[in-house]
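Chapter summary example.
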Amino acid sequence: MPESVAWPVVLESDDVILRPIRHRDRREWTEVRSRNAGWVGPWEASNPVPGGLPPTYGDMVRSLNRQARQDSALPFLITERQDPARQPAIVGQLTVSTIVWGSARMATLGYWVDRDRAGRGIVPTAVALVTDHCFQTLGLHRMEINIRPENGPSLRVVEKLGFRDEGMRERYLHIDGEWADHRSFALTAEEVPDGLLNRWKSRRER
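The structure predicted for these 206 residues follows.
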């Protein structure tokens, strides 16, 4: 199995397309994030250094691309094919981070989505797509998602996909200006031998 993220890569299922984030996406990404500031802000990682500023869009893209080249991250935009005559629209972001190789072969996944597109199955599809890619193509063994216990929409995503609840991590990440508790959810490759996307689609059809 490869010990490399084989970047860049595009993943898609029906109208949901995951593609690499780019510098030229700045205008559209900024518009979507600005419109969703109140929706995303309470769950967003913040800088714990006193007086520290959040990264600019350019800083974020450079950092994510550097991590991808170092085989430690997969920085995707979540896009949706809404009009056949136009390019798929940016509706969110998904990043596989802290990829560990060797004996662990695990990673952590985080995401956000446009509030206007929430509840339509876009994020579960995106998470299933990238988890299958990590398990089946990259040879990772474990995917982890850490969620604030107050974040109902994100909790519903892992519930729909069947991630296991592994309990609370106290003051796990610095979020929206303070150290915040998170519930940790995980899935291993053995739990989805036929693929997480297949399982998700099967559940949706019932």
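To summarize the output: The first helix runs from residue 26 to 35.
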